[in-house]
Protein 1
Amino acid sequence: MTTKLLITGGCGFIGANLCEYLLNKGGYQLRVLDNLSAGRQEYLERVYRRTGHRIELIHGDIRDRGIAAEAVRGMDAVVHLAAKTSVVDSLTDPEEVFQVNVMGTLNLLEACREHSVGRFVFASSNAAVGEQEPPIDERKVPAPISPYGASKLAGEALCAAYFGSFGIKAIALRFSNVYGPFSEHKGSAVAEFIRCIKHGKPLVIYGDGKQTRDFVYAGDVCRAIELALGYDPKDAADLVFQIGSGKETSLLQLVEALQTVARENGLEVPAVHHEPSRAGEIRRNFSNIDRARERLGYSPQVGVEEGLRKTWRSFFHL
């Protein structure tokens, strides 16, 4: 049986990885909704060359209710990845972040209700939880410290409301720091560092570099999404899952690991340049993934060193 699946933001980093992953698995017919403000249509072309499968693309914005309804119609499930993802951007323009991340999510859930689409996977973030003593788990009371984090928490609340009110199985996955192929356009730490190494520019770290993150490889996130698509939640408290590696890595450790990969490929890592810390950013963060292990059957397969090598090859087209 083929599952008809809408992926919003499917031309983006995680979206392109998910398209390739699911097409390689088989059993999926994919439709992508993307306004191409951040994603790249060429990523879908790359997926086609690798898999031999074309993907239907609807060029449109999730803030448009009519387009959201058109995209959802006829689907069996929705994976909602489209979002404004920058903490820094949310500080300068919180209204736009809320329009995209909250109203866009509402539009899609409404479209699911109207067209009887009963499964919905929402890409949330550890930013919804805020600055808390790690590891982060689903029992901690969320206290976001940025408008971006607040917008993701609002999305989680909408998922719970549409599950409780309309029976839509709306699972929220709180991704930690995802990295991997198809991230050439991203401003994330791994992507930015690899670009700097490639072009011989200094690596910029905001703060002392001892801030920590949970770096999870994109392929592991794709596995988590597929598992969530088949999960039947018990109640509204069974909708949110932490998805990460479960390991804490500092930015300085990340740079050290990248130095190893660069030297394996005949390059030296440029000097590290420190800038002042940025407002709204969390100091320490990594996930407790026990609930995802026990209930979804999620288990990360790719460690940081292996994941960085895979990501490096994608940036250098090796």
Note: The CA atoms of residues 24 and 51 lie 7 Å apart.
Protein 2
Amino acid sequence: MPRSVWTVSNVLSFARVLLVIPIAMLLGGGDPSSRFEAAGLIVLAAATDFLDGLLARKFHQETNLGKAIDPLADKVAVGVVAFVLTQQGKLPLWFLVLVLLRDGAIFLGAAYVRRARDIILQSNEAGKWAVVLIAALILVSVVSTGDPRWFRDLLLLAATGMLVLSFVLYLKRFLTVIREPRAH
């Protein structure tokens, strides 16, 4: 692989994907005490998400690969952990379906724009906030023992709203880009 693949920010994005494996194993293992270890790894994964873009800009290491793998790492991490939590009844199935449909549509749309227009669509601000709220929801769902549910429900509502808003903004940008006349 080219040297530009191994930037600090790209390594952090790759690490976030790899962290999904022990998180899913800890959550699915059945040992209730392992939820705190899983929570620690979730916080670590969230920190890699915060740091990767920050370090890419600071060290002038922004790459097209990084622009693609950062949101992909988020989608893989959120999708896998949300799936495990849905299986355990800690997240509703409709939320998992919403996350997967939204992320799948955004991924396919971004791939189309990349192929058709050679443009990499980056995350929008609402999408970044959606990931923050989903991470908080996942963290609370992991460590919570049941009551009080109002905080988890508030995070679920906020994450859902931000998922919908970010998708509408992605769709608007997608339509704008594909309607633009091609530069020759």
Note: The CA atoms of residues 100 and 151 lie 23 Å apart.
